Amino acid sequence: MDDHAFARSMWTVVEPVHVVTYFSAECAAANKEVGLRGFWMGYFGSRGAPLGPVGPGVIEATFHGFHPAKVRRAVPDAWSFAAPEAILRARSAAAATALRRLHGDVEKVAEQVNPLLARIVADADATGRTLFAANRDLTPPDDPVEALWQHATSLREHRGDGHVAVLTAEGLGGAESNILAAAVRGTPAQWLKDSRGWSDEEWATAADGLVRRGLIDGNGEATDEGRALRGAIEDRTNALAAPAYRVVEKPAELFGALRPVARAVIDSGELPFPNPIGLPRLSG
């Protein structure tokens, strides 16, 4: 398996470990208990907490895809309800609780892979990767499953930061990138529009721009050119993620160790398919 393909494969097992923070009942309850109000304040506050009590512009720039007004309904108010330090403690503890519920041997897996994951995170290039850098600088929790979740989170944000850079380079703003992704993947476009906070008019304007570029047709279907661009974006994202994994001497062993945990999350049904992340089901 080449470096780019391995980076892609690692995303399919790292991402499920991370996403319990959005979809598990334990994590939703933890956000509420720490003081965050509603799902979206929990989302922006929890994911953004490594950055500190930043303004909405930082969240808008780093998260990509969300309407600025949606961000501003949650940030900076989130920091008046819960300090980032408290959110950080709550999010890792809740994620570990969810992972233990979903996979009975996750602690053994964590103890096996954490030393290598910590090395990958420490050695990865943070240039231009704001969310990754902020997560990398957090002290890993003493609890092995919390540490596993944090390492997975750092690596998914490393990939995500690279993905945002590619989307931006291709001239795809938040609405445009969501529309093209929906057209190519078959994800319900209305779901993405509503969850990301775009108005009908803004969505239509963005779609018209993609039609003019020949990326979708008048019915909102992806054209061959649109599918090719989306494929190139994913290929470039894989290429940007790959250098972080060059310290891995036995790729199959690392992937194989994480796969059962990822499979447990996916098989739980808590993560929907299709999903707004674009995560595919694990094959086999």
From TrEMBL:
Source organism, top-level taxon? Bacteria
Q: What InterPro entries does the entry give?
A: HTH_67
This chain's protein is named SalK
* Highest classification ranks of the organism: Bacteria, Bacillati, Actinomycetota, Actinomycetes, Streptosporangiales
